[in-house]
Design brief:
There is one protein chain. The relative contact order is 0.18. The chain has five helices and seven strands, in the order αβαββββαβαβα. α4 links the parallel β6 and β7. α1 packs across α5. It is an alpha/beta fold and 142 residues long. It has a single domain, classed as NAD(P)-binding Rossmann-like Domain (Rossmann fold), CATH 3.40.50.
Amino acid sequence: MSMEKNFEKALSWLKTYRTFAIVGANTNPEKYGYKYAKTLKEAGFNVIPVNPKYEEVVGLKCYPSLKDLDEKPDVVIAIVSPKISAKVAEACKELGLPRLWLPPETWNDEILAYCNENSIDVVYDICPLMATNYLLQQRSGG
């Protein structure tokens, strides 16, 4: 898929879906796991942080794993290494979570193939911050 089509898909997900689980959510403001959670929360999305290291991220309850969630997210964002993203993809299959967003440096061709083989829709190599900020600028007429 071209990057342009991938970016369009990312924007359509942001326009269509409200609940985003962020695997790799973080309490460190310098980390993308924090920035994604904060930006999506401030943009009005329902954010579900996932990381076994924390009880709370950006003022929201943080869950140890996807299987521990109280609600089913529309989209799972994995801001972790490709090795862990592969496990996230497996959890998505097991839990029936149909959409996985893999930002830059979180994916490889094997993960994309696994998702394709298991009917998991994927956005990859697109930064959620960039896509969300682009959408917000569009909405405000910028």
